[in-house]
Amino acid sequence: MPDVYISRQPLVNRQSKIIATRLTLHFDDGASTKDAAKTLDALTEFWPLGEKLVFISCGNAPCDAELLDWQIPENATIEVDSASFVEPEAAILIDALKAANASLCLVFDTQAKAALSSGVSFRFIAFDAQRFSPAQLKSFAAQTQPYGIGVAINVRDSQGFQDCLDAGVNAAASWFFKHPTKAPAKALSPGQAQIVRVLNLVRKNADIKEIEAALKQDVALSYKLLRYINSAGFGLSCEVQSFRHAVTILGYNKLNKWLSLLLATASKDPMAPALMHTALTRARLMEVLAQGLVDRQEYDNLFITGAFSMLDALLGVDMDKVLESMSLPEPICDALLGNGGVYGPFLDLAKSSEGEDGKELAEQVGMLGLSADQFNRAQMQALAFADTMEL
User: Fold this and answer.
1) Where is the HDOD domain (predicted)?
2) What's the pLDDT score for residue 250?
3) pTM of the model
4) Is 12 helix (H, G, I), strand (E, B) or coil?
């Protein structure tokens, strides 16, 4: 079966939270929507179930009836181009959409009238932010309000995101928040520096009393740490009640992995929830992809690399400034500073999974000797993990 690779974008709402994920299908040479349906069907076991919706886009390929030939999860929404409703085989698609009874999103264009009058019900109407001016977007969003909830796609930057919200859409698919607009700070804040001190103590296997004393200087840190450890994503069979209890159950190495997440929570950025979700997805994706490719004891370090890969955006400090005060293994620092190393290819693939270049994504997957199926499954597992964490 020809390969289909899946990349992702978050759908961010007015409260700067990720409320859905938009998956884009990238078709390798010879791949069809029938292959895409088989690819999606193979992900059933790993599908991220829960409150967050998952939009499915065929990218540059047209959506046809064959895409619907899979067990569509309840939280999935299929994107359909308006142009598909004026194609010669439009009647077949319309019948298939009605029969599937799935949540649908119409990608709006000048031919949308045919789609809106087809008798097919749409839950969402998506507007390509690169095709319409803010004024046009505002007009179209108002006109289509009775037909579905307005969302935007292909938003490039923070100004574009704000323009879409001002035009009346409810959320936008974009990575604009990965690129801070403020100038980076020269050093960590006192709160951030305190977390680094605790992290360094854990990495040095300091006495539990010493680490507990450092944590007690900021009660919020202890609370956040226990909340993370007790999240569904961690999968413990009992509730961890204290830091000492956590050390007993997890050991220092595992605890370091989870304590690392605290540094990201020190962000005051209004986009922190979206950044944290992205960091967690990268962390889990890298950890899963590495299984069988590196020594088991390195899995946690790959998780930490992914979790720390957004620190410059989260903390508003250049990455080199963040790392100079931390006692991290050289492979983690190399990857975070763009110097390659053992973990570099895993981080590069995690970043490519957030892009729109299907060829680059396929190349990065191939460089690690992985199949499209292995990568797609890992991505679904990572999304499901990030969704279960209490941010």
Assistant:
1) 188-374
2) 73
3) 0.89
4) strand
pLDDT of residue 227: 77
Alpha-carbon distance of 43 to 41, in angstroms, equals 5
User: What's the one-letter identity of residue 55?
Assistant: F
Distance of CA 330 to CAs 197, 301, 323, 334, 370, Å? 18, 11, 11, 6, 25
Task: Report the C-alpha gap between 233 and 221 in whole angstroms.
Answer: 19
Structure tokens at 121: 């019900």
Domains located in the chain, CATH noted = 4-178 (3.20.20.450), 190-388 (1.10.3210.10)
Distance between CA atoms of 36 and 50, rounded to whole angstroms?
A: 23
Which residues are within 8 A (CB) of 90 and not within 5 positions of it... i.e. 6 or more apart? 84, 114, 118
Burial code of 363-377, b = ≥16 C-beta within 10 A, e = fewer? ebbeeeebebebbbb
Q: Strands (DSSP E) along the chain, which ranges?
A: 4-13, 18-27, 53-57, 76-81, 103-107, 124-128, 149-155, 171-174
Contact of 307 with 282, CB cutoff 8 Å: yes
Residue 358: both structure tokens together:
């299907």
Q: Do 376 and 31 meet the contact criterion of CB atoms below 8 Å apart?
A: no
Quick one: how far is CA 372 from the chain centroid?
A: 18
Residue 155 contacts residue 182 (beta carbons within 8 Å): no
Q: How many CB atoms lie within 10 A of CB 120?
A: 17
φ and ψ at residue 338, rounded to 5 degrees: 75, 25
Distance CA 251, CA 229 (A): 13
Mind listing the pLDDT tens digit for each residue in 14-72? 988 899 999 999 999 889 999 999 999 999 999 988 889 999 999 988 888 999 999 99
pLDDT in tens, 258-309: 777 777 777 777 888 899 899 999 999 999 999 999 998 899 899 999 999 9
Angle at 121 between CA 120 and CA 126, to 5 degrees: 105
Helices (H) and strands (E) in the chain, counts: 17, 8
Residue type, 164: C
Residue pair 313/179 in contact by the 8 Å Cβ criterion: yes
SS3 at position 254: helix
Identify the sign of the CA torsion 24, 30, 34, 40: negative
Query: Cβ(63)–Cβ(106) under 8 Å?
Result: no
